[in-house]
Automatic annotation (TrEMBL), chain A:
It comes from Macaca mulatta (Rhesus macaque). Its main location: endoplasmic reticulum. One of its GO terms (biological process) is sphingosine biosynthetic process. InterPro entries: Aminotrans_II_pyridoxalP_BS (IPR001917), Aminotransferase_I/II_large (IPR004839), AON_synthase_class-II (IPR050087), PyrdxlP-dep_Trfase (IPR015424), PyrdxlP-dep_Trfase_major (IPR015421), PyrdxlP-dep_Trfase_small (IPR015422). GO terms for cellular component: endoplasmic reticulum membrane; serine palmitoyltransferase complex. The gene is SPTLC3. Its EC number is 2.3.1.50. The keyword Manganese does not apply. This is serine C-palmitoyltransferase.
TrEMBL record, chain B:
Residues 99-414 form the Aminotransferase class I/classII large domain. It catalyses: dodecanoyl-CoA + L-serine + H(+) = 3-oxotetradecasphinganine + CO2 + CoA; tetradecanoyl-CoA + L-serine + H(+) = 3-oxohexadecasphinganine + CO2 + CoA; octadecanoyl-CoA + L-serine + H(+) = 3-oxoeicosasphinganine + CO2 + CoA; L-serine + hexadecanoyl-CoA + H(+) = 3-oxosphinganine + CO2 + CoA. Its cofactor is pyridoxal 5'-phosphate. Belongs to the class-II pyridoxal-phosphate-dependent aminotransferase family. One of its GO terms (molecular function) is serine C-palmitoyltransferase activity. This is Serine palmitoyltransferase 1. It comes from Macaca mulatta. It is an enzyme of class 2 (transferase). Component of the serine palmitoyltransferase multisubunit enzyme (SPT) that catalyzes the initial and rate-limiting step in sphingolipid biosynthesis by condensing L-serine and activated acyl-CoA (most commonly palmitoyl-CoA) to form long-chain bases. The SPT complex is also composed of SPTLC2 or SPTLC3 and SPTSSA or SPTSSB. Within this complex, the heterodimer with SPTLC2 or SPTLC3 forms the catalytic core. The composition of the serine palmitoyltransferase (SPT) complex determines the substrate preference. GO terms for biological process: amide biosynthetic process; sphingolipid biosynthetic process. One of its GO terms (cellular component) is membrane.
């Protein structure tokens, strides 16, 4: 990696860009240097993130677009109320007309009038394994997206840029999956019991030991659903009288778990260590509001890779802060386990840190391992406590045996325990694909958010009309993309989100990039002001100057 | 001209100053001095402590000691030494190396090791692999999911059904999707933990009524009606829900649904029915408690069930009219923000539904077996049966408690160990003692099953 001269970022005053290039070494973190295996660790990789702001005219047009949509929405509602236009939505039963209405009109305004127009871009059904290529079922709507019908045709071999298939392990059955077949035939599909009663199979024990070995921690516990792992275990760890410091852009499951716990929640700005430090200082110095008692514990909730932004958490700084202020750290590695790090062991490996420094490592098996479920790993006393007190262990059923076998198989593959180095090759291929894809997109002039090593690539579209046009055109070109708008993202920052996979070949990525190039010109999406020329030797020059 | 008027005004002012009485001038002078003092004095916030020096702050940071992240757990807690099951958890189960008859799994229809179900799951595994790699909105919707939703809707004779990938998350996501802060929910005291969590997430007003006591519920509804009359504007926007279970997991009794429907129309509250234990058990064709009582299914606003009991798969579903169910596709948290159900589990559930539709006789056999077991266990001294004879999941409670919960638990555990020695797998009902609203006493949790 090389250092980029910061001068050019300030040369053009009108641009407000946060281009964070920092040298994150052990010396910068307060306190002693962390030692890895006896050697002094010196992490000197550059963290390159960018969150470029759009030009002003784009924001103006975006808000205008929403404004026009809202006006038409009011017009349509008016026409529907007065019976001028047929109302296609489902209605309340005749016998229950005098009940209090189940939905307030304005709650559903956005859904009825804006989302309904473009809703054919979501919930697209597929009929094959979600690998690098998949088959999408064709569906059309005769009444402007109120109802869909299937034509019966299938669009085959669509390039999949939307599923979370980072290591390419979600694929059709092949001979390497015969252990899953055996487990299915012996154990069946369901478990029909909770962990505490009769639902702990020997498969679960095997899986937990393997997960602990993979992550290099003392113990681990697995759960049947990734979402439920967060929402049922955070309340077991913290309660009333504790403080939770949660990132602005945390996933819904973390927010739900924090709310259900009953602790006080304070939010710090996304990935902003100064904001976190200020909150920590205030919490430790001033204690609980009004009573001034000290907090029982402070838990920091962050994610490894944020799926809507593509940013990677600034882990070394956060660990330094946590040590100084004696807080506990909970990392949700749903999108980063298996996907970042030289051997796929997540953000701790990416930054070269010891996984024992993080108190609670949580992750899911849905994304990189091609299965379902979640895990929590850490010290043995933490996992023992969760075995006794987790809501999921007492009331919810345990993981299904074939799913557990798939995870065992993937973990063995990744760790090289099945005798091949294919697992490691997949991780390396993913890293290569990620860098290539991001580099080419930036050269073309799109605005991409996030860290240059994160396999989740958000491409900003901004305007609601372009969101729909982009997704539909890309499907015509046989490329399946995911577009996200309000309310999952801020109102004016609708985006397309690509998930690079190790299963994508260079040709597939090139096809996608060509299509994106065309789309960018057709829909005028190339908003970035740092158009670099497409000379491949750019990164090898020792000094460069922007001509512009 | 302007300056002349200014001067004239100034002269007037000075004259007025000389002519004013002394006290007036003194008062005004004091006022002006006070204002100047206030303007220049330092503002202080009432909240913060005044002026901690940096050194004091650093000392506070050094001194603060948080609690340990997790309190220590006693080493002999039963949950740390799970019963390890090797092999399928069907009616003969291998626990800790010993083969026992299984009275501890919710395998009511015995479909866990049915070869047809396994074959269907295998076919799906061959076609789709294992995971779905995405939520329903982002290419996680497979044709198997749509099929399963269709079949479930047809089986329950409703318009639409929606599938969740985890049984616990089904009702815990469905309730907060409709009931928000300010709405009122009337819920039974014996409601299961998943419902309690759903209600907690919804932040609504909760009113508990005594278990299966319709008079108590009517009393609460009447009180609410009186409140409404005091504030009709607020009443017009406050939604009301009654949440009940078909077959209660904590008591093994059936809810009195006909009376509930009457109360619903009288007091204009919507009914959410949780049918985890009664789906595939009650009713002639396994349609649940609505079929058992012969009630029109449209009278119930939402039926939610999990597929982990009778259907021997994983996951859950909600069914009802499209008007109600479609809302969850955008606002059910466990649906929108979580990966979808793995297709092999969905295929297994479809095949289980096929079997249920083809052999409606198994429900009668199951009921007969439940009756037999209930009768056989009635006469045991020291233990009483809690639950109706129709219910396949019921409890055996100590008739007289020894006085302390821990001793009761230990006594029951001894009995469990003895039964295990004689090849019968039993389990105690497990609860999170600190989290349950109405903690039931320690007891066994027995589940009957049908096997072919």
């Amino acid at each position: 990696m090389r250092e980029v001269d910061l001068k050019w970022a300030r040369r053009s005053p009108g641009i407000v860009e946060i281009n964070v290039v920092q040298r994150s070494s052990a010396e910068q973190t307060q306190g002693k240097e962390p030692k890895q295996n006896g050697r002094t660790h010196f992490y000197d990789k550059l963290i390159v993130e960018s969150f470029e702001e759009a030009p002003l005219h784009v924001m103006v047009f975006t808000y205008m677009g929403y404004g026009i949509g809202t006006l038409f929405g009011y017009l349509r509602d008016f026409m529907r109320n007065w019976g001028i236009e047929k109302c296609n939505a489902a209605v309340e039963r005749k016998e229950q007309r005098d009940f209090v209405p189940l939905y307030q009109d304005f709650e559903n305004f956005y859904t009825r009038n804006l989302y309904m127009r473009i809703r054919d871009n979501w919930n697209r059904p597929i009929c094959s394994a979600p690998g690098a290529l998949f088959d999408v079922m064709e569906r059309v709507s005769d009444d402007y997206n109120w109802t869909f019908r299937f034509t019966g045709r299938v669009i085959k071999d669509v390039i999949n840029m939307g599923s979370y298939n980072f290591l390419g392990l979600a694929a059709k059955y092949d001979e390497s999956m015969r252990t899953i077949k055996d487990v299915l035939e012996v154990y069946g599909t369901g478990v029909a019991s909770t962990r505490h009663e009769m639902g702990t199979l020997d498969k679960h024990k095997e899986l937990e030991d393997l997960v602990a070995k993979f992550l290099n921690v003392e113990a681990a516990m697995v759960f049947g659903m990734g979402f439920a792992t967060n929402s049922m275990n955070i309340p077991a760890l913290v309660g009333k009288g504790c403080l939770i410091l949660s990132d602005e852009l945390n996933h819904t499951s973390l927010v739900l778990g924090a709310r259900l716990s009953g602790a006080t929640i304070r939010i710090f700005k996304h990935n902003n260590t100064q904001s976190l430090e200020k909150l920590l200082r205030d919490a430790v110095i001033y204690g609980q509001p009004r009573t001034r008692r000290a907090w029982k514990k402070i838990l920091i909730l962050v994610e490894g890779v944020y799926s809507m932004e593509g940013s990677i958490v600034h882990l070394p700084q956060i660990i330094a802060l946590k040590k100084k202020y004696k807080a506990y750290l909970y990392i949700d590695e749903a999108h980063s386990i298996g996907a970042v790090g030289p051997t796929g062991r997540g953000v701790t490996e990416f930054f070269g840190l010891d996984p024992h420094e993080v108190d609670v490592l949580m992750g899911t098996f849905t994304k990189s391992f091609g299965a379902a479920g979640g895990y929590i790993a850490g010290r043995k006393d933490l996992v023992d406590y969760l075995r006794v007190h987790s809501h999921s262990a007492v009331y919810a059923s345990s993981m299904s045996p074939p799913i557990a076998e798939q995870i065992i198989r993937s973990l063995k593959h990744l760790m090289g325990m099945d005798g091949t180095t294919q697992g490691l090759q997949r991780v390396r291929q993913l890293a290569k694909n990620t860098r290539y894809f991001r580099q080419r997109l930036q050269e073309m002039g799109f605005i991409i958010y996030g860290n240059e090593n994160s396999p989740v690539v958000p491409l900003l579209l901004y305007m609601p009309g372009k969101v729909a046009a982009f997704a539909r055109h890309m499907l015509e070109k046989k490329i399946g993309v995911v577009v996200v708008g309000f309310p999952a993202t801020p109102l004016a920052e609708a985006r397309a989100r690509f998930c690079v996979s190790a299963a994508h070949t260079r040709e597939m990525l090139d096809t996608v990039l060509e299509a994106l190039d065309e789309m960018g010109d057709l829909l005028q999406l190339k908003y970035s002001r740092h158009k670099k020329s497409a000379r491949p030797e750019l990164y090898d020059e020792t000094s460069f100057e922007l001509e512009d | 001209m302007a300056t002349a008027t200014e001067q004239w005004v100034l002269v007037e002012m000075v004259q007025a100053l000389y002519e004013a009485p002394a006290y007036h001038l003194i008062l005004e002078g004091i006022l002006i001095l006070w204002i100047i003092r206030l303007l220049f004095s330092k503002t202080y916030k009432l909240q913060e402590r005044s002026d901690l020096t940096v050194k004091e702050k650093e000392e506070l940071i050094e001194e603060w000691q948080p609690e340990p992240l997790v309190p220590p757990v006693p080493k002999d807690h039963p949950a740390l030494n799970y019963n390890i099951v090797s092999g399928p958890p069907s009616h003969k189960i291998v626990v800790n190396g010993k083969e026992c008859i299984n009275f501890a799994s919710f395998n009511f229809l015995g479909l866990l090791d049915n070869p047809r179900v396994k074959a269907a799951a295998l076919a799906s595994l061959k076609k789709y692999g294992v995971g779905t790699c995405g939520p329903r909105g982002f290419y996680g919707t497979f044709d198997v999911h749509l099929d399963l939703e269709d079949r479930l809707a047809k089986f329950m004779k409703t318009e639409e059904a929606i599938i969740y990938s985890y049984g616990f998350a089904t009702i815990a996501s469905a309730i907060p999707a409709y009931s928000k802060r300010g709405d009122i929910v009337f819920v039974d005291r014996a409601a299961c933990f998943a419902i309690q969590k759903g209600l907690q997430a919804s932040r609504s007003d909760i009113k508990l009524f005594k278990h299966n006591d319709m008079a108590d519920l009517e009393r609460l509804l009447k009180e609410q009606e009186i409140e409404d009359q005091k504030n009709p504007r607020k009443a017009r926007v406050t939604r009301r829900f009654i949440v009940v279970e078909g077959l209660y997991m904590n008591t093994g009794t059936i809810c009195p649904l006909p009376e509930l429907v009457k109360l619903k129309y009288k007091y204009k509250a919507r009914i959410f029915l949780e049918e985890s234990l009664s789906f595939g058990v009650l009713g002639e064709h396994g349609g649940g408690v609505t079929e058992h009582y012969g009630i029109n299914i449209d009278d119930i606003d939402l039926i939610s069930a999990n597929m982990e009991n009778a259907l021997a798969s994983i996951g859950g579903f909600c069914c009802g009219r499209s008007f109600v169910i479609d809302h969850q596709r955008l606002s059910g948290q466990g649906y929108c923000f979580s990966a979808s159900l793995p297709p092999l589990l969905a295929a297994a559930a479809i095949e289980a539904l096929n079997i249920m539709e083809e052999n409606p006789g198994i429900f009668a056999v199951l009921k007969e077996k439940c009756r037999q077991i209930h009768k056989a266990l009635q006469g045991i001294s020291g233990l009483k049966v809690v639950g109706e004879s129709l219910s396949p999941a019921f409890h055996l409670q100590l008739e007289e408690s020894t006085g302390s919960r821990e001793q009761d638990v230990r006594l029951l555990q001894e009995i469990v160990d003895q039964c295990m020695n004689r090849s019968i797998a039993l389990t105690q009902a497990r609860y999170l003692e600190k989290e349950e609203k109405c903690l039931p006493p320690p007891r066994f949790f027995i589940k009957c099953f049908h096997f072919s």
